Amino acid sequence: MARGNCMVTRNDRGGPRDLSTAPRDVQKIRSKSHRNSHRRDPERTREAILAAAQNEFALKGLSGGRVDEIARRARANKRMIYHYFGSKQGLYLAVLERVYEGLRGSERTLELADLEPEAAIKRLIEFNFDYCRDHPELISLINNENLHRARHLRQSKKVRELHSPFVRLIDDILKRGVAQGVFRPGLDPVNLYVTIAAMACFYLSNNWTLSAIFGRSLGTDAACRSRKRHNVEIILAAIRA
C-alpha cells in the first residue's frame, strides 16, 4: 500500500515499513523490477507516460512542460517517450487526442439518439457543463493549444474523425425536433455545440476572475447548479419553434 510519497510494505511484526529505509540493494531490485514490468507491458508504459504528460502539460503548457519530469512521474525511461511519440510535440499532440477521446467517449454513453429531441439536448448541455467542471485539465489544455492557434491539433486526423459522427448525431436530433414541431428549422449543429461548449467553458475557465469582479462565489456547488440550469433554459429557448 502507499502512504504519502513513501512506498510502504510490512515489517516482521505485521506493521508498515518505509522502503526508503530499506537496504540499497533491496531498493535497486524493486526499482529494476518496476522498470522491467514496463518493458514487458508496452501499452501500460505508454499509458503511464500519457497520464503523466497530461498532468504536466495541463499545469505548465507545452513550453513549460518538461520531458524529464514526465519520465520521472511515469517511472519510465526518457528514451521510451521518444520511442513512442517521436518528440515532445508528438507527445503533446497525443495528450490532446487523449482528452478529446475521453470527452467523446463519455458523450457516447449518454445514448442521445434514444431520447426525445428536447431531452437529448438538455442532457447534452448538462453533461458538457459537468464534464468540463470535473476535468479542468481539458480546459487548460484547450486554452494552451489556442495560444498556439491549434498548430498541433490541426495535424490530428483522429480528432476530426471523433467529431464528425458527433456532429451528425446532433444534426439528427435537431431534424427530429423540427419534424416534431419542437425546434425551429435552420439550426446548425456545429453552431449549437459551440454555444453549448462556450457557455460551460467560459464560466468555468474564468470562474476565479468572475467571482472576484462580481463579489460572488461562482464556483460553489449551488452556484454551478444554478448556472447549469441557466444554460439549459437559455439554449432551449433559443432553438425552440
The CATH class name of the largest domain reads: Mainly Alpha
What is the rounded distance between the termini?
58 Å
String of helices and strands: EEEHHHHHHHHHHH
Strand content: under 5%
Low-confidence sequence ranges: 1-23, 25-31
User: What's the number of helices?
Assistant: 11
Bin the helical content.
Answer: over 70%
CATH topology of the largest domain: Tetracycline Repressor, domain 2
Mean pLDDT: 88
Biggest pleated-sheet summary? 3 strands, antiparallel
Q: Supply the helix-strand structural class.
A: mainly alpha
Alpha carbon gyration radius: 23 Å
Per CATH, the architecture of the largest domain is Orthogonal Bundle
CATH homologous superfamily (4th level) name of the largest domain: Tetracycline Repressor, domain 2
Q: What would you call the shape?
A: globular
Count of domain modules:
2
In order across it, which strands form the biggest sheet?
1-2-3
Could you tell me the number of beta strands?
3
